[in-house]
Design a protein that fits this description.
This is Type II secretion system protein G. InterPro entries: N_methyl_site (IPR012902), Pilin-like (IPR045584). Keywords: Membrane, Transmembrane, Transmembrane helix. Pfam families: N_methyl (PF07963). With about 375 residues, this protein is an alpha+beta fold. The protein folds into 2 domains: about 150 residues, no CATH class; about 140 residues, no CATH class. Helix content is about 25%, strand content about 10%. It is built from 7 helices and 12 strands. The strands form 5 sheets. A 3-stranded antiparallel beta sheet has the order 3-6-5. A 3-stranded antiparallel beta sheet has the order 8-11-12. It has a two-stranded antiparallel sheet with strand order 1-2. A hairpin with a 2-residue loop joins strand 1 and strand 2. Helix 3 crosses helix 4. It starts with 7 loop residues before the first strand and ends with a helix.
């Protein structure tokens, strides 16, 4: 049968084609169905999620690298302090009580460390001995100097800025002289951080804790900042001076860097519980430990076989991007049977075996290229 001709209509030079069912069917078949649209939307969502996840991973890696870099820079400055003063700085690594192994009262040990450090670093110092002893954790009345109380001595967070913040060039008064950490608490200007002879170029805006006005938020006013006041050893000036114990946080972090002295003693010399910075009364951050070099894992370790990581030097730690330290719980070096705990649920988290999980996993240090988790064996 002859195919009917397609009708055409001419309107003033325009040609209109009549409706053709075959052409309409072809157009309809080339359009997206609802199912196909949903598939496309799903693919786009997946790609967007992957791109977002990749961007977040890159951002986190950048933040982590920035903190690790600053940890290494702080570590370099600690080395410079050691070269300048002849020893690595101590900190009050005490908690309370006595070691079951050595019977040494911890505050006595750290107090002696501070006294020896100041004698070595500042042999002409006329600073009150009572103040130096208090910084190390000495209790009771301390004279000369009559310093205010500082429970457990300078902790690991406070040690970072104290030792790297700088001291006065006055060889007799490295703490109380100009450029040192002490200031007149009765002065209208208060503490001038820019006046310190810094060993490290701190971003002073990241020192804390601060109140809403930006000044040191001390324990007298509901804050966490600790300080020491003491009798002015000089013949001029106010009767009492004050040292604020600042802490230094990475950019964007609410947790400070921590410094632990690993150069003087082994864990058993301090205490069963080794203190760091307490988030509250029950959570502490501790210097990391390991089995000594050359120890055979086929043997049962004795207390003397447990040493600090980076033995002979120091540790600098930060909680990582989650701003949470996790369970660096108060552990006991010895268990109830007198044997060394090595990684069970109630024992020592030995490096590098761990296990470093949860909030502890992303802890950053000066002795690992990345997190504790990435260094874990």
């Amino acid at each position: 049968m002859a195919r009917k001709k397609e009708q055409k209509i001419e309107v003033r030079g325009w040609r209109l084609e009549a409706w053709n069912p075959t052409s309409a069917q072809r157009l309809a078949s080339s359009a997206f169905t609802l199912t196909e649209l949903l598939v496309v939307i799903t693919i786009i969502a997946i790609l967007a999620a992957l791109i977002t996840a990749g961007a977040m991973n890159a951002l986190n890696a950048s933040k982590r690298a920035r903190i690790s870099l600053e940890i290494n820079q702080l570590g370099q400055s600690i080395e410079e302090v050691k070269n300048k003063y002849g020893a690595y700085p101590p900190n009050g690594m005490s908690f309370q009580g006595e070691s079951n192994y050595s019977g040494t009262v911890v505050s006595q040990l750290t107090t002696s460390d501070f006294e020896r450090m100041f004698k070595k670093a500042f042999p002409r110092s006329q600073e009150p001995v009572g103040l130096i002893r208090r910084l190390g954790g000495a209790t009771g009345n301390q004279n000369p100097g009559d310093p205010s109380l500082l429970p457990n001595g300078m902790n690991s967070a406070e040690a970072v800025y104290f030792w790297l913040g700088g001291f006065s060039e006055d060889t007799q008064y490295p703490l109380s002289g100009p450029g040192g950490p002490a200031f007149d608490p009765t002065s209208t200007t208060g503490e001038v951080l820019e006046s310190r002879n810094r060993e490290y170029e701190f971003d002073l805006g990241r020192l804390g804790p601060r109140n809403d006005s930006g000044v040191f938020h001390d324990t007298d006013n509901g804050g966490q900042g600790r300080y020491v006041t003491y009798d002015n050893p000089k013949n001029t000036g106010p009767a009492r001076l004050r040292i604020n114990l600042w802490r230094y946080n990475p950019s964007g972090s609410e947790r400070p860097y921590l410094y632990f002295d690993a150069s003087r003693h082994d864990p058993i010399d301090y205490d069963q519980n080794l203190t760091g910075l307490g988030q509250n009364d029950s959570v502490q951050i501790y210097a990391l430990k390991k089995l000594r070099e050359g120890f055979s894992t086929s043997n049962t370790p004795a207390p003397k076989d447990i040493v600090f990581v980076n033995k002979g030097k120091f540790q600098i730690l930060h909680s990582g991007l989650d701003d949470a330290w996790g369970s660096f719980k108060p552990f006991s070096i010895l268990n109830a049977s007198g044997n060394v705990n090595t990684g069970d649920a109630s024992g020592v988290f030995l490096f590098p075996t761990g296990p470093f999980t949860g909030d502890v996993a992303d802890t950053l240090t000066n002795f690992t290229p990345g997190t504790l988790e990435s260094a874990q064996e």
